[in-house]
Amino acid sequence: MSKDPISIVQRGNLRSLESTLRKQWRLGQNIVLCWCWDERGLLVIFVPHYFLGNYCANRESSEAADENENYIRALISGRRRKSRDELFAVAVRLGVSPTFIKLEHPLDESVAVMGAVEQIIRRYGLSFVEQRGVLLFDITDFSLFSSFEQASQLNSLSYSMNSAYNKLAGRGVDINFARTTTGDGYYVWNRDAHPRADQELFLFLLLVLADNALARAASRGNTVPVIRAAFHIGSHYELYQAEGVNPTVFSYIVGDVTIELARIVDKALPGQVMLGDFGGAADEEHGSAEFVSRVAEAAKALEGLPLMGQPLQGLSCWLSRDASDSDQGQPLDVSITDKHGLTHHAFNLQAELQFEDTTLALGLTPEQFRDGQPGDVPRGNGKSEAWWV
Question: Structure pTM?
């Protein structure tokens, strides 16, 4: 049995810290921006929840407003621990005073304890993430089903996510995924931020779609949902809302990436899979097309994964192109005009999972989504057939 890296004394410190932060948090009235270690406890900067909005809204100068917003974003990105000098510099710039939290014992500066403090601090604050991959699963025609059918469909989609997670974990891909409901679906993201995190989340998307397709092929009635999905990379804020007298254990995200996903999925057809445009001609190395190419290469690690009672022989994915230009040129751009008259750009994604005698196809062909035809799920036992999500 491995030794617990956090001692009983330090656990007491963490409980005391949590209790004090909860009191200062005041049901969400105040939020924590940053903190620093002190030999007798911690120094913390609290501000009212409305402070950041006021600080960034400089009506006299748009440049000053942008500068303030960039400063706040940098402050609440990544690690919240600052040096003593850094923390007081923040206090001076914002015009606030640090709060001292006294602990009964000196706080251990070990990696485990400092990591635990960071996690506690985040629950009482607001975080900004510059670039992160996020999924949106949406159940089509959700409001038209009975309450029992809605519950069954949400449970089915949740099971597909858990199943995909277990399959990837079995191949050494351990996604630390988080999700928050939209009512008729889920936003999903990877809490980890290592270089492969977004690629692994994308593979997770494909396996969720595959599990959903197989479940639909075997189901009767309206217990398994027809879903439409989208993947995008962008910025967002992460927060923990008040739940009674405590912040929730699970976080919520909101920002450019979730807004873009919502606009894209709102115009998607049942069974369609969309990819946001998170790059362009000036950023080909990190654009959508290049990302899909890298994922297709990474997907080779899933070969042999048991699905449909057979080992997976191959997984391919691509962005749809014009039928007249299918082998070269740029991916087919799907322009979406939202309810505010703003234009968003996305791509139609297609994928195939190959088995010895069966191909499982995901997404819609360009002809299907151009003609407004939703995907179909044939219910048969014939070989070499393709299921469309």
Answer: 0.86
